[in-house]
Specification:
This protein is of the alpha/beta class.
């Protein structure tokens, strides 16, 4: 992720706050009209037709009966809300005045719910989705499920735009959240049977030619004490397909699940992006090259690379630094956390360092080439951007890839190669204008890698699912679909894994997932708790979809973005001060308060910046992964490969 990228996109920021969902419930408020049915039987009040097709329809025959069943805030119930004394009081006190979008991250979910449920300016599906979000935030999960599911039944084709000007489809997202909440809260005694909103042509960035095939599924009662699904023992399932036959390969089992293998043993990527940029340094003035200099920097002149070996954990009391812990180094902290993989975005610059990372700390490397992202490799002018049709630029980018592979292919720490970094969003390049040219060229680079190295797979790093249809058609030599995806606290959602499975069928690496540790309306401690909860949901989504799990079985792991806060990435234009830890939101998105804070994504901070690049403050998210999610003992209990 890059500062210039976000400011270039900032002008496109819509009022829509994408799928920002709450991470932990506030105290539930009382609904005056919760409805007569906890699980609404829609067949009693209307008729479904053409389920699973593009001609799907639900026709309401008994509107009053359905309104009584759903309760206030759930379509088509309108009068229930208007009769709610608490709503009347808030309206009288003018607490509901203002732009509806300012209420998405409202401190009071009750106020947010009343504002959205009474909104008449936004499309019905959008209104219903955000009303459901506020119900969830309040811990009213049964009513939230009803509200989300009503989007699926009544408004499955509604869409809006994200900050990247890509379509956001409300119906599939709502269905994902129904499934998530039902799984997360078995005490509700619900089960979702079936359910799929498949959108043909959705990946071409043009919603005008979309074809919706809609099956709302059905919510039915289920035993409250039902057991969680157990993982499959893959040792008893035959292997149908193998990609690569070297030290690192990919296998597909007879049940369709994918597994990354290292030396014939299963390997799950527990990865993180690592880029230690000292406070005050920035690539904007040439004082720091982000993807290189951390591997070479020895500011204290002791013969050791600063971040990996010389970092220490600050000791704080009441927010003030009172002591310095022993020098431990980031590599040891990463090992303690359970990290087994670093993602390097563009080549390596210190073989000795990376060899020690592997031999001493047991951490492998996904090594990448930007392939013209941010004009790196193409040597194009930033303002013009990389032109994937330009033969001279193509030659330079392929030469960069060749140099990377020839230099590092025999290093034991290489896990696999990754090409690009969300280039498809068109940041300082023309891939969005000529996607066919871009993906054909990407495959050319993948083919070059395979001609030089038979021992490691090749991945691409896409921006979410945009143009995955073209990648599937034009990139046969790519082995792994990598996606930088920031969709919310629940992860990417069931529909993501299914869409990739249907569209391409390749194994998936979530090549970036993350959350800022800053919130406009919360204390720092509360914001860090929200970050940790958000990352938990993201990793649990990945884990659910690993081979042998109850999901689609096409995940091979994920890469957490990122290790350490980088202070150079934001600010108030036209000035960017890398010595200030800015709290400027770059773009609206699915984060705790609805905004991305690019300088706050680290699960480790640089303290107050005075002791950079050596001081570390370990946030709650660090301990979540260390003690639970990536802890070897807990990992083994969950039946996952070590």
């Amino acid at each position: 992720m890059n500062k210039k990228h976000f400011w270039a996109l900032l002008k496109f920021v819509c009022a829509l706050l994408a799928t920002n969902l709450p991470l932990c419930a506030e105290e539930a408020f009382h609904l005056n009209d919760p409805g007569l049915e906890t699980i609404v039987d829609y067949s009693k009040y209307g008729e479904f037709s053409n389920i699973g097709t593009s001609n799907y329809q639900y026709f309401i025959r008994d509107r009053e009966g359905l309104a009584r069943a759903t309760g206030e805030g759930v379509y088509p119930n309108v009068t229930g809300l208007l009769k709610d004394p608490a709503f009347q009081k808030m309206e009288y006190e003018k607490k509901l005045e203002g732009n509806v979008w300012d209420f998405v991250g409202a401190d009071s979910p009750q106020i947010g719910f009343y504002k959205w449920a009474s909104n008449h300016d936004e499309p019905g599906g959008l209104k219903q989705f955000y009303a459901a979000m506020q119900l969830e935030n309040a811990g009213l999960y049964a009513q939230a499920i009803k509200a989300y599911y009503s989007v699926v039944v009544h408004f499955p084709k509604v869409y809006a735009n994200t900050s990247w000007k890509t379509p956001w489809y409300v119906g599939p997202t709502a269905l994902d959240h129904v499934a998530y909440l039902i799984r997360k809260h078995p005490e509700l005694g619900m089960q979702l049977r079936g359910g799929r909103i498949r959108i043909r042509n959705r990946f071409d960035d043009d919603p005008r030619n979309d074809i919706f095939e809609i099956d709302p599924g059905k919510i039915v009662p289920a035993p409250v004490d039902r057991a969680q699904p157990r993982r499959l023992n893959l040792k008893f399932i035959s292997i149908d397909r193998q990609l690569g036959h070297g030290a690192v390969s990919l296998v597909q089992y007879a049940n369709g699940h994918w597994q990354l293998m290292v030396n014939n043993a299963p390997y799950v990527v527990r990865g993180i992006t690592y880029s230690v940029t000292p406070v005050g340094k920035t690539p904007d003035d040439g004082s720091w090259v982000v993807h290189r200099d951390w591997m070479l920097s020895d500011l204290n002149k002791n013969g050791k690379i600063d971040g990996p070996y010389d970092s220490w954990v600050g000791q704080y009391k009441q927010g003030e630094l009172v002591g310095q812990g022993p020098v431990v180094g980031d590599f040891q902290l990463l090992k303690d956390m359970g990290v087994n993989t670093l993602r390097l975005y563009h080549h390596g610059y210190n073989k000795k360092l990376l060899q020690d990372l592997y031999h001493t700390y047991g951490i492998r490397v996904i090594m990448g080439d930007f392939l013209g992202a941010y004009t790196i490799g193409s040597e194009a002018d930033w303002n013009t951007g990389t032109d994937y049709r330009n033969p001279d630029q193509q030659k330079k980018m392929l030469e960069s890839v060749r140099q990377m592979v020839e230099e590092y292919k025999d290093e034991p720490y290489i896990l696999f190669w990754v090409l690009g970094n969300e280039n498809n969003y068109g940041n300082a390049n023309n891939s969005r204008e000529v996607p066919d040219v871009y993906y054909a060229f990407l495959n050319k680079a993948a083919k070059l890698i395979k001609s030089l190295d038979h021992n490691h797979p090749v991945a691409l790093s896409n921006g979410d699912l945009l143009f995955i249809d073209k990648a599937a058609k034009l990139c046969p030599d790519v082995d792994i679909f990598g996606a930088n995806s920031y969709r919310g606290y629940h992860g990417v959602g069931d529909s993501f894994w299914r869409d990739v499975k249907d569209e391409w069928g390749k194994p998936i690496l979530i090549s970036e997932f993350g959350c800022p540790a800053y919130h406009r309306h919360k204390s720092q401690e509360e914001a860090e708790k929200l970050q940790a909860d958000y990352l938990r949901g993201n990793w649990e989504d990945i884990e659910r979809n690993l081979a042998g799990g109850p999901g689609e079985g096409n995940a091979i792991g994920g890469v957490l973005f990122e290790w350490l806060d980088e202070w150079w990435k934001a600010g108030s234009p036209p000035t960017f001060d890398p010595s200030v830890h800015d709290t400027v939101g770059q773009f609206a998105g699915p984060f705790p308060d609805g905004w991305s804070y690019e300088e706050w994504y680290g699960i480790v901070s640089q303290g107050q910046g005075k002791n950079s690049p050596f001081e570390r403050q370990l946030r709650q998210a660090y301990f979540l992964f260390k003690d639970e999610l990536w802890n070897p003992k807990e990992w083994k209990k969950r039946g996952l490969p070590q």
